Amino acid sequence: MSVSEVRKSADSRMSKSIEALKAALSKIRTGRAHAGILDHVMVEYYGSPVPVSQVANVSVVDARNLSVQVWEKNMAAVVEKAIRESDLGLNPIAMGDNIRVPMPALTEERRRDLNKVVKSEGEDAKVAIRNLRREANEALKKLVKDKEISEDEERRGQDEIQKLTDRSVAEIDKLVAQKEAEIMTV
């Protein structure tokens, strides 16, 4: 293993942490309706749990309403129940094989709570990035101990890892700030 391999590994793993944060933030509901909000809602379909998007067509009707058009009539009740029991706080209305999902307006208190969740997700991502930095630095120290690289190469490698870490943390801060602004807009 070389310094460049350690750096590449750390870079790819940090990128995956940022992608995981983006996925987590996309599940946090803002005041507007978007089809992706139901992505993590699972329904029982012939014995196996599948996302709503695999048994129905989810579309945005307007800023406050989603429409869920199920492909099989017998799935309408199952999908409606899954949406109602999800942690999103939504109350779907069934109309035949079509389900209307009104998005309730967020109260100021709920917006603050959501911002706390966003900050918590951001902190978790930063902790993951710092753990990756520590692991990369330990790998560099092991390379020096095994006499595969010099101490100067180790120092340069640690500087590169620190730059990757700083860049990743800055991107996390930017994502968190964007999401908070999105939540606070009425």
TrEMBL record:
GO CC term, one of those recorded: cytosol
Organism domain of life: Bacteria
Domain Ribosome recycling factor per the UniProt entry, residue ranges: 21-184
Role played: Responsible for the release of ribosomes from messenger RNA at the termination of protein biosynthesis. May increase the efficiency of translation by recycling ribosomes from one round of translation to another.
PANTHER family: MITOCHONDRIAL RIBOSOME RECYCLING FACTOR PSEUDO 1, RIBOSOME RECYCLING FACTOR
Stated family: Belongs to the RRF family.
Name under which the protein is recorded: Ribosome-recycling factor
